[in-house]
Write a structure and sequence with these properties.
heterodimer; A: 4-stranded mixed sheet; 4-stranded antiparallel sheet; 42% helix; B: alpha+beta; 4-stranded mixed sheet; binds flavin-adenine dinucleotide
Chain lengths: 392, 379
Amino acid sequence: MADLEQFRAETRSWLEANCPPEMRKPVEDENDVYWGGRNAKFKNDAQKSWFEACRDKGYTVPAWPKAYGGAGLSPAEAKVLREEMARINARPPLSSFGIWMLGPALLHFGTEGQKQRFLNEIARGEIRWCQGYSEPGSGSDLVSMQTYGEDKGDHWIVNGQKIWTSYADEADWIFCLVRTDKDNKYQGITFMLFDMAGDGVSTKPIKLISGNSPFCETFMDDVKVPKSYGEDIPAYVGEINRGWDVAKYLLGHEREMISATGGGDRASSLGAVTSRQGELDPVLRAEMALFDVDALAFTAMSEKFLDEVKVGKGHPAQPNMLKYAGTELNKRRHELLMAAGGSRTLEWESEETEHGKPARSWLRTKANSIEGGTSEVMLNVVAKRILELPGA
Amino acid sequence: MPLYYDDDQAMLADSASDFIREEGAIAKQLRHWRDRDCKDGFGHGLWEQFGEMGFTGILLPEEDGGLGMGQVEANIVLEEIGANLTPSPFLSSSVLAATALKHGSDDTRGRWLPDLVAGKNVYAVAIDEGPKHRPEKIACKAEKSGNGFKLTGKKDFVVYGASAEMIVVAARTSGSDSDADGITLFAVPQDASGMSHDSVRLVDSSMASHITFDSVELDGDAVIGEVDGGREILNAMLRAGRVGAAAEGVGVARGAMDMTVDYLKQRKQFGKLIGEFQALQHRAAHLYSEVEIARAVTIKAAQLIDAGSEQAELMTSVAKAKVAKAAGLAVKEGVQMHGGIGMTDEYDIGLYMKRDRALQEFLGDMYYHAGRVAELSGY
Ligand SMILES: Cc1cc2nc3c(=O)[nH]c(=O)nc-3n(C[C@H](O)[C@H](O)[C@H](O)COP(=O)(O)OP(=O)(O)OC[C@H]3O[C@@H](n4cnc5c(N)ncnc54)[C@H](O)[C@@H]3O)c2cc1C
Ligand SMILES: Cc1cc2nc3c(=O)[nH]c(=O)nc-3n(C[C@H](O)[C@H](O)[C@H](O)COP(=O)(O)OP(=O)(O)OC[C@H]3O[C@@H](n4cnc5c(N)ncnc54)[C@H](O)[C@@H]3O)c2cc1C
């Protein structure tokens, strides 16, 4: 305990010295964060120095082992760091699908060689990853995917199309589900890693209702994927044809991550924030109050879940419940923000709204209950795996 | 503090669950007493067993004969009471009245606590003065008279009031109805002259009293805490009672949900188990997530109370409101998904709906507590 208190004190002074004031504001949208990668650009000096300080300390991935670019913090220490960062509203130094999704899968399934190489690259923000799961005909029913890798001995030739690949046009590498056995639905998928700069990979942005284009169609025409990138560095995670296990494991992490959006800015109640902008209609105030009840209660649930994970309690399908509840809550939050802000929030391109931030964020949240598995799919999982209701 | 039970709490939960499922079961208690039109609405035998188990003094310090445990532990017992719809004076006696009595003088504690701990006596609390919970306003008056006080006024919906050997009454000793100050708590013995009960059975078969105080004479030692300084004790009682009612509500929700999910796995229509229909699966899964969230925030609020945190007040209201939403959903979906059988008295699901309705009103409903969340958050 005393050690933890000392760690807290050290963390506090380290943050004081290293986190610039500009980085002590809540993130408002995806453009506020640093994504790393070969072509990365910093928005400003503060973002750069904050990222570099964290990278050097292992704080881009504090709980990963030091050998893989982390700080090797214990769960208790990682919690202290999270709390201290939240206390000053410190922004995450690096946002990355590598950290949220691929990293945990590599830590669990990866070879030592893969961990040494890829985890370090991720921790240092050198390579930006994207996730190639969905296909035009395969969304919720992911195992029906068709992208095919033909076995050519020491490599595969991959052909197919992915869709909804977030940031594919800005990513360096892709972790991709590829069918390697056409006769076996579940046990015929391989989880491959490859460089998108190679021949045959192309992307085409898709414009969203928010006006942004954060995701793409990804085309693969005769892409040559070697089976190995060096000694003990296979180009696939887990075993060949057993990629579905990896994909499922990773989706669990993705859902946890997305559900974390639920409480929004947890430090303050939505009603308190919006009432500062002007008086709330009585019925809206009541809605806000009922929302705050749900949001604060959800925050307690997330906390309980994290506490239970640490000691191995809780049901393994619980992240699906959190994903469902958290994302539905976040959508409601933005509906209320629009209502409280009134006509001002309709402005699509004004200085006042920083180019329509409220409206664009509101529209963006509608994807929360679609991306990473829809709410309906989450409910299916809860019904079958937790409540053990019958049926396919 | 992690948001799950530590080993001791998990052990208590196991033993409370086994004991109450066995002894407090619906057939053995709720239906048994209801069908006999019992004027108490609960069984004294079970209350004595609660005493033997130590539950009666769970929140009281060891020097008063209690177990010296906290709100989290009291809530563990309450969740089981809720899940089994056990009619019990536990919440009013061992949570609300006990919290008040903790602030009493040595004499007061010596007079009332031993019989509570032994499961011999039942106590009630008299706060509300109308059909909605409005503890901000207290009109019932206690005027100085000789060495003591003269109590005049009316209290409504005093749970198990007619069965209680003593009633903790919140009365005004100075100021006007809506003042925060000027409240005093009194331990009023059942046999005090001038006190009359109009005891009514509620929808959930529990009993509640409308009490009239007609110049009830109380001596000076009836005062719990300081004269005019009762608001703080009242607030502590309310916090404990509200979070306790939330825990009981989580139990009710859990009980109703479990019954319903079981039914979905047994009932066949259209050649299938109705649990195979996605229209019902999604509603059941949504219900599960609401109940889990309500449970998490109730544990959180109880922990904050035990830790003496400033946040306890806010989280208690969040818990009471969230449980009201979740339990309300659980009982409504429960009856609906049972189809016609859910409307029958023979089947238990309707009993959950009735108990939920009573718990919703007790110590503030969802609207009252959401309103408090807004106020405590500054809007
Ligand atoms: C912003 C955003 C970012 C994304 N990023 C990525 C990414 O980086 N990489 C990637 O691979 N994918 C990504 N996706 C894709 C995402 O995973 C899919 O959109 C999602 O899985 C749903 O698939 P779909 O769009 O094909 O919808 P469909 O599966 O066609 O579903 C349509 C509707 O039918 C419902 N439905 C489908 N099946 C069932 C069922 N069995 N029971 C009940 N209802 C059902 C769905 O819930 C939905 O409401 C992203 C999506 C969005 C919106
Ligand atoms: C007060 C009362 C009076 C009545 N009076 C009469 C009367 O005078 N004459 C008479 O003949 N009957 C009467 N009934 C019976 C009534 O018509 C049935 O209760 C009703 O049709 C539902 O059937 P069930 O009770 O068997 O429920 P079930 O069919 O077992 O349904 C249980 C649950 O499963 C759901 N469910 C069932 N099938 C599906 C599906 N395919 N998809 C999704 N959900 C499904 C139902 O909606 C319900 O929520 C009465 C019922 C009541 C409560």
